[in-house]
Amino acid sequence: MAPYAQPGQVAFPAPLATPGRRFLGYLLYIVLFIVTLGIGYIIWDLILWQKGQTPAYKIMNMQVVKKDTGQPATGGTMFLRGFVGGLVQSLLNYVIVGEVLWFMPFWDKDNQMLWDKISGTVVLDMRPPAS
Fold first, then answer.
1. How buried is 18 (Cβ within 10 angstroms: 0-12 exposed, 13-18 middle, 19+ buried)?
2. What is the C-alpha radius of gyration for the chain, rounded to an integer number of angstroms?
3. What is the C-alpha separation between 42 and 49, in angstroms, rounded?
């Protein structure tokens, strides 16, 4: 059993990304989106989805994996997560609870956002362990 699993859970190849790293990833996403004028980011995003990453996650060495298997998310899962889940979360933020859901990883036991729950994914911190 990998060191990043509890009894009855899937063994992930790395620990879950902390809420703080996920928040920094979101801030990096905003900067990269602006710098690449949006369209560059979208193309980069679509290419990296095949590896279970986004441009910000690639730079920060994080990866999206399926929660039930520990395998990298596929392009279809990343579409579900990014487009459908993002749309649902945005609508809920706007209509119901304001911006509260953006801080969901800070209270969720698996550090998940709503789009992670919809797509059945978690985000791992793939940095090598400190020696």
1. middle
2. 15
3. 10
> 73 and 65 in contact (C-beta within 8 Å)?
yes
The pTM of this model reads 0.86
In what helix (H) or strand (E) does residue 68 lie, and over which residues does it extend?
none
Count of positions (residues) in the chain: 131
Residues forming beta bridges with residue 61, ordered by sequence position: none
For residues 37 and 19, give the distance between their C-alpha atoms in angstroms, rounded to a whole number: 27
**pLDDT band for position 1 (cuts 50, 70, 90):** very low
SS3 36: coil
Are 70 and 13 in contact by the 8 Å Cβ rule? The answer is yes
